[in-house]
Amino acid sequence: MWIKILSIISISFQFITFPLAAPEILGKEWLKKTEVLIRNSIKTIPFIILFVLGIGIGLGFSFGVIKQNKLITIILVIVIIIMSLLRKKITLFLDSKIVLPILNKLIISDNLRFSLLKIAAFLFTIAFILQIIIIVYS
């Protein structure tokens, strides 16, 4: 059981390292060139969440889980309706309050990019050590 948990943690650390290291490795010019692409991809997060919730509700109905838990069904449907109605406001909020400030800081601040690279290196090292431990004990 603990081997599975350590495996998931190490894979999660490795997954997190790329977005942290990418701005420093790819550089300021790359960030400027791909700013629109990054902004558009982050603005699709609400649609991805709606898609996953829809799949979850469909699977829940097919396996009979949601029929037993009507409160969960009601909450999920309300969340989907609210997200559908407020879709444009959510994307504007994500763009103006989250994406643009982060991108501007990443483009301007060399220290921030280097700090993120150091954090990524630390997480990658921890993940590598966890994988070695998993291999030795499994």
UniProtKB/TrEMBL annotation:
Transmembrane regions listed in the UniProt entry: 45-66, 73-94, 114-137
Keywords, in A-Z order: Membrane, Transmembrane, Transmembrane helix
Protein name (database record): Uncharacterized protein
Organism from which the protein derives: Aquimarina aggregata
